[in-house]
Amino acid sequence: MPSSGSSSVFPSTARKLRVIMAQLDFLVGDIPGNTQLVIESTQRAIREHQADIVVFPELCITGYPPEDLLLRPSLDVRVAEAMETLKEAQLGAAIVIGVPLRHNGLLFNSAVVIDGGEIIGRYFKRFPPNYQVFDEKRYFAEGTEVLMLDIRGVPVGITVCEDIWKDGPVEDCAAAGARLVLNLNASPYDIDKQARRKALLERKARENSVSIVYVNLVGGQDELVFDGGSMVYDHSGVLTVEAPQFSEGLYPVEFLWEHHCQPVSQPLPAEPSLEANVYRALVMGVRDYVNKNGFRSVVLGLSGGIDSAVTLAVAVDALGKDRVRAVMMPFRYTSSMSLEDAEAEARQLGVQYDVFSIEPMYDSFMEALAEPFEGTRPDTTEENLQARLRGVLLMSLSNKFGSLVLTTGNKSEMAVGYSTLYGDMAGGFDVLKDVPKTLVFRLANYRNSQSPVIPERVITRPPSAELAPDQKDEDSLPGYDVLDQILNLYVERDFSAEAIIAEGFDRADVERAVRLVDLNEYKRRQAPIGVRITERGFGKDRRYPITNAWKSGK
């Protein structure tokens, strides 16, 4: 609950201002559709909430991130048409939208304020980010000016996303006389992000004696998931309003303006667990990727193991059971336990379930390969053939029925290459790509706490690819509780091998893990995308050359 620093007693002469946080899901590239969504949402905000100002996320007109669509020659024409449409709509509230605008030959990530059918202010983002998944400096110039407007009698400053993380923009708004700062965002989710946002906003509001409205995008875009979590801090640094994460909506905030622009406090949502938030991010990422790309359904291989079990649960929660198909593809090494558990999962979730043995196909391939393989001993080649046959089956079902293949590899496996190119990596979207194995177990327990869908022995049995007799993951890898800590230090925090060893880890385990990460960059380049939930996922976050002679020890 808000602390006593946020008073609910105001003078009767205080002026009221109703601001709506439009936490919405926009489609990248759909400029006409996004423009119409702004119009319809504003009309609803006026009708249902008597809006004075409606604040939309960063670059909402193009969707975020538009990437090289910003380089298309027709961008300026399309944006100009959108601006005319918004002005002609003659909306009864001021709207603050995010849009790319060209000025003096340079393109800027901009916020535009439209009121009474006219553009009354333009703001050019001053700090386009160029780190992690962001490469805005590829497209945008840096703004230099402050924007402070009188809106309904209240002095309002405008900033865009990264600007609030830097010194200057909020401070300059306050110095110009602003008592309310509106901050438009397209800030992607990671596990600790909301806590970092809150600490920042609390400090910025308190130090500058301004209330801050932080409006964030929601929805999935390729590997990124935007979690919303829009919020308001008052001038003393107290959180007074917070919208739920992963939920679209129009969230009203009433301000009373006299000496300060004071938001009226609202009950705050309960703090979700890490597992709940990650699970919701995966569900949103799958739902938006499938729906925005026009897939009718998804298909995945169900092995009886924990990764495919969690992937199946996420898919059903994202799309509904009628749009999910699970396929068990047993071989001679598949245990009866795996067969029983896979069927139990599919039946419990109510999805279409098929069993196709790969034994006849495997025998045919081995017969064809008998001559070139003569005189050799069985090795991982025969194991990988099993995985590749399963990939062929799933891709055939995908082609025939228009289903997206969901792969099931987790971040730990992707890191060390514990996967087969054109086998279990064959597919269009990897739900668990950025989820370490130890977190997969926690997600399974979380999902079962909502309703039991994963058999307990799937969670407790030792993980195995079942590509050889009595095979277990830990036969060739350190235990996942150790491996995931090593991978976190090396992949996400850039520790050297020696620095990891100095943290107390076994030298052999570290050197093996680091070597496998480095060797398998070529595999990850060919892997499907997947939901990003950490500060540094494989993909846009981590870009290492495949061909290199860098030594990872120091």
Automatic annotation (TrEMBL):
<feature type="binding site">
    <location>
        <position position="384"/>
    </location>
    <ligand>
        <name>deamido-NAD(+)</name>
    </ligand>
</feature>
<protein>
    <recommendedName>
        <fullName>Glutamine-dependent NAD(+) synthetase</fullName>
        <ecNumber>6.3.5.1</ecNumber>
    </recommendedName>
</protein>
<feature type="binding site">
    <location>
        <position position="131"/>
    </location>
    <ligand>
        <name>L-glutamine</name>
    </ligand>
</feature>
<dbReference type="GO" id="GO:0004359">
    <property type="term" value="F:glutaminase activity"/>
</dbReference>
<keyword id="KW-0067">ATP-binding</keyword>
<feature type="binding site">
    <location>
        <position position="523"/>
    </location>
    <ligand>
        <name>deamido-NAD(+)</name>
    </ligand>
</feature>
<dbReference type="InterPro" id="IPR003694">
    <property type="entry name" value="NAD_synthase"/>
</dbReference>
<dbReference type="InterPro" id="IPR036526">
    <property type="entry name" value="C-N_Hydrolase_sf"/>
</dbReference>
<comment type="pathway">
    <text>Cofactor biosynthesis; NAD(+) biosynthesis; NAD(+) from deamido-NAD(+) (L-Gln route): step 1/1.</text>
</comment>
<feature type="binding site">
    <location>
        <position position="187"/>
    </location>
    <ligand>
        <name>L-glutamine</name>
    </ligand>
</feature>
<feature type="binding site">
    <location>
        <position position="413"/>
    </location>
    <ligand>
        <name>deamido-NAD(+)</name>
    </ligand>
</feature>
<comment type="similarity">
    <text>In the C-terminal section; belongs to the NAD synthetase family.</text>
</comment>
<dbReference type="GO" id="GO:0003952">
    <property type="term" value="F:NAD+ synthase (glutamine-hydrolyzing) activity"/>
</dbReference>
<dbReference type="GO" id="GO:0008795">
    <property type="term" value="F:NAD+ synthase activity"/>
</dbReference>
<feature type="binding site">
    <location>
        <position position="408"/>
    </location>
    <ligand>
        <name>ATP</name>
    </ligand>
</feature>
<feature type="active site" description="Nucleophile; for glutaminase activity">
    <location>
        <position position="161"/>
    </location>
</feature>
<comment type="function">
    <text>Catalyzes the ATP-dependent amidation of deamido-NAD to form NAD. Uses L-glutamine as a nitrogen source.</text>
</comment>
<feature type="binding site">
    <location>
        <begin position="301"/>
        <end position="308"/>
    </location>
    <ligand>
        <name>ATP</name>
    </ligand>
</feature>
<feature type="active site" description="Proton acceptor; for glutaminase activity">
    <location>
        <position position="58"/>
    </location>
</feature>
<keyword id="KW-0436">Ligase</keyword>
<dbReference type="InterPro" id="IPR003010">
    <property type="entry name" value="C-N_Hydrolase"/>
</dbReference>
<feature type="active site" description="For glutaminase activity">
    <location>
        <position position="125"/>
    </location>
</feature>
<dbReference type="InterPro" id="IPR022310">
    <property type="entry name" value="NAD/GMP_synthase"/>
</dbReference>
<feature type="domain" description="CN hydrolase">
    <location>
        <begin position="17"/>
        <end position="257"/>
    </location>
</feature>
<dbReference type="GO" id="GO:0005524">
    <property type="term" value="F:ATP binding"/>
</dbReference>
<keyword id="KW-0520">NAD</keyword>
<keyword id="KW-0547">Nucleotide-binding</keyword>
<dbReference type="GO" id="GO:0005737">
    <property type="term" value="C:cytoplasm"/>
</dbReference>
<dbReference type="InterPro" id="IPR014729">
    <property type="entry name" value="Rossmann-like_a/b/a_fold"/>
</dbReference>
<comment type="similarity">
    <text>Belongs to the NAD synthetase family.</text>
</comment>
<feature type="binding site">
    <location>
        <position position="193"/>
    </location>
    <ligand>
        <name>L-glutamine</name>
    </ligand>
</feature>
<dbReference type="GO" id="GO:0009435">
    <property type="term" value="P:NAD+ biosynthetic process"/>
</dbReference>
<dbReference type="InterPro" id="IPR014445">
    <property type="entry name" value="Gln-dep_NAD_synthase"/>
</dbReference>
<dbReference type="Pfam" id="PF02540">
    <property type="entry name" value="NAD_synthase"/>
</dbReference>
<dbReference type="Pfam" id="PF00795">
    <property type="entry name" value="CN_hydrolase"/>
</dbReference>
